[in-house]
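User: Predict the structure for this protein chain, please.
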Amino acid sequence: MAIPTAEEYRIEQLTPSHYPLLQKLFRRVYNTRVSPEDLEKRFDTSLFGKNVVGFIAIHNNSGEPASYYGVFPMNVQIENKIVSIGQSGDLMTDQKHRNKNLFIQLAELTHIACKYEGMKVIISQPNKKSLHGFVNKLGFKPIDEIIRWDLKLGMKTVPLSKLVSTNKTFKKSYLPYAKRVLKKYIVGTPALFNNPLEISIGKVQRDNAYISYKSSEDRFFIKIENVMLWIRLTDVFWIGDFDNYDSINSVVIKKIKRLAFLLGYNTISFNMNASITLPDPLKIFKQYSSQPSCFLYIDETLNDTNIILAAADSDTW
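Assistant: Here is the predicted structure, written as structure tokens:
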């Protein structure tokens, strides 16, 4: 569906036919090459019963992509009810096409379409540059902050992780090695991996559909002592979440550090809401960064609802 805008651009609702244009935007905005296969997997959210909702602006004269705004559907448990929400992600504007109000136009159209699709809330973690636009122009409300917590190894290891994140050829040979290191810890995929904290705010429904959508060759479920972790091996040893915070102790932390060392990681990371107090054993992690957790309440009965957002709940994890 094409929507008329200024003569310089046309705006269209995202379909698979636009994926080659998104590839160009990823390369120009983030200097990232995304394969057609990875892009198709990322945008195939049919397991949730809803498609990614997004709009793309195309420069009329050149036919080149100028800007994109999209929302990934997900389900959240709020007060014992499963609610459909959206998470904004892959927000991109080519530098040549900035200051044309494209971002706001695309966002407003996307949010209208999200309401039509039955989403009740849109969540976003904007950076400092875009926070003003989200809050003052799009009506988002900052509710919380999401903290990235890092633990640096005292004894440094060979940084294999840097080669993994920059060299696809090396990654193919590295993953079999990683599986050997993790062999006695890897466990079967659970049917459900919701955050276990006993607090009265929303939680992403990490059911079989969610886990299948997130599955990849660099993600593993492992069990250390009585704690199951969902991890991802990227530029850091990234913990998506734990299934049992009460059982995290110094022995568990020591074994996590040992695995990270053997796998070539000097940094272990996880994400958690600033409003949630960390269990004592996790307080050895230090804050690396933070981003505001902002909410747009399409359904006003959910106003001020907060949601736990661990790393596994991020569109970039």
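The chain has two domains: 2-119, 148-292+299-313.
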